[in-house]
Amino acid sequence: MSVTSDDLRAAVGAGVITEAQAATLAQLSDERQGYREARALVDEPFELFKGFNEIFIVVGLSILYSGWTTVVGISVADAGNASLFAVLLALLQMAFLLPLTQYFTVKRRMIAPSILLSIFMAVGGFQMGFGLANGSGLSEIRGFAMASGFTAVVMGLYWWKFRIPFSLLLAALGVFGAAIGMVQGPDSSLNSPYDLFLLSTGSTESLITITLGLIAFAIALRFDMSDPHRVTRRSANGFWLNVLAAPAIVNSVALTLYSNGSILSMALLFLFLVLMAAVAIVIDRRSFLISGIGYMIALVFTVLESAFGLVMLLVGLGLVLLGANWSPLRCWLLNKLPHFKGKDRLPPWQKNEVAD
After folding, report:
1. What pTM does this model have?
2. Which of 14, 49, 150, 335 has its CA 20 to 30 Å from the CA of residue 113?
């Protein structure tokens, strides 16, 4: 009888062993059985819920929150000092969410309710920040920046207390919103969503997007490399940060190249997408590939012009083949790459000792 990584994650979730003990057991098992054998059944683990009971609880929490927001909306509308009342209600909402999180996250170890409670907490933080900004007489865009900043702080503390990986994504979004809001003029706003990504315009917003995307990617990689076997929540932290980092990085570069329209830009776009695919394979995260699919379709469509059906056929076939042969391709690529710092801390692959 052998203990799999799924068994270790279940043991951690049930509170039988700690994350540190699970990681130690996984490392010992890998040393005895070989990295590839221990990794064979683990394919970028990702869970939104463990059972239908979690969905049932999510439905109940959603209805409960809908009733709360309805009552709150009426109360705020009737209040004399709406801003102060909104802040007090936000504080009351977040205080009520804490014992719910303690129960569903810490005691019951439920995934889907924890994600939903994180969203509710982020909404409360945003409401509190916006109420304070409105009461201070700040402009709408400055109020958005302040509310986003409050959201980032609240979700950072929330993650520190409960270690819910999804809350890191919300905290990062709060930082992004605050940074974008702060660079706007007091009464200005974005002219177009493209301003967030088009580096060719030289806009501050696009520079913020790619900079924060790179920072999020660096933090995500640090989480991933601290848990290469992906048996603890550190890998889940890395997953959600990559969900944010991938579109920020890929869209900034790819949209800038694609909007240029020149042959050179199209060639560079193709090389960039290949590079992102290689990065995704090396770090064993598919989010960078998902972010680049739209640009790959657009690029192939540009070359083949009106052959839309053929474009979809080729791209779909390529993705299916890539997904089906992900592990062998990753083993081949990592064995071909020379040794670099941190290579031995990546998710395990079948090493070719002769090639290395």
Report:
1. 0.81
2. 150
Tell me the pLDDT tens digit for each residue of 324-354: 888 889 999 998 888 888 888 888 887 664 4
Decide: helix, strand or coil at residue 187. Answer: coil
Q: Please report where in the chains the tokens 């062993």 appear, as a residue.
A: 17
The structure tokens 């064979």 sit at 40
CA 348 to chain centre: 22
Q: Contact, 89 vs 146, CB < 8 A? A: no
CB within 8 Å of 285: residues ≥ 6 apart: 44, 220, 224, 238, 239, 242, 246
Neighbours of 54 (CB within 10 A): 21
Radius of gyration of the chain (CA): 23
Instruction: Give the rounded distance of the alpha carbon of 229 from its chain centre.
Output: 19
Strand segments (E) across 256-351: none
Triad 287, 320, 233: Cα angle to 5°: 35
Q: What is the dihedral of CA 170, 175, 180, 183, to 10 degrees?
A: 160
pLDDT tens figures, 103-126:
999 888 899 999 999 999 999 999
In degrees and rounded to multiples of 5, residue 45 shows phi and psi of -55, 135
Query: How many other C-beta atoms lie within 10 A of the C-beta of residue 26?
Result: 25
Q: Which of 282, 293, 159, 161 is nearest to 225 (CA)?
A: 282
Residues 6+ apart with CB under 8 A from 26: 5, 8, 38, 229, 231
3-state secondary structure of 14: coil
